[in-house]
Design goal:
Helix content is 16%, strand content 29%. By secondary structure, the chain is an alpha+beta fold. It has one domain. It is globular.
Length: 133
Amino acid sequence: MLLSGGPLQRPIDVTDPDLLRNFDPWAGSFVNWNEPAAMGHCTWECEVTYFKRGIEPATPYDKGDLRMIYGLRYCLGDDGEPGYVHLAGQTDKFWPENVHIVWDGTQAGKWHPSTLSWKAFIERMVAGQERGQ
């Protein structure tokens, strides 16, 4: 997984197997599925891209032999809000590259309330970079 944009000084590669399992795009744990699609005020936005080794078609976002399989945008909420996740729709960046069996049905192209665990994960990644980790 690669985090980029927002307050990040450089992209962050996330390779920890536990984090990758917890935030697997097929699990959808970055979205609060109990809430309807909605968007509120955000403080900053970053992009999250997922990669996999394999024979998937090449994309402009690949990293060596790692193929980009899914991308989304995350917007950090303010006032304690968990933030919002944008799942790419047909007219959005990443749509042609996304594996379309991952959250592309009626939810694609919309912002959704995120989860507090996703927000905490993103904040830890940003804070780690600020501390030089």
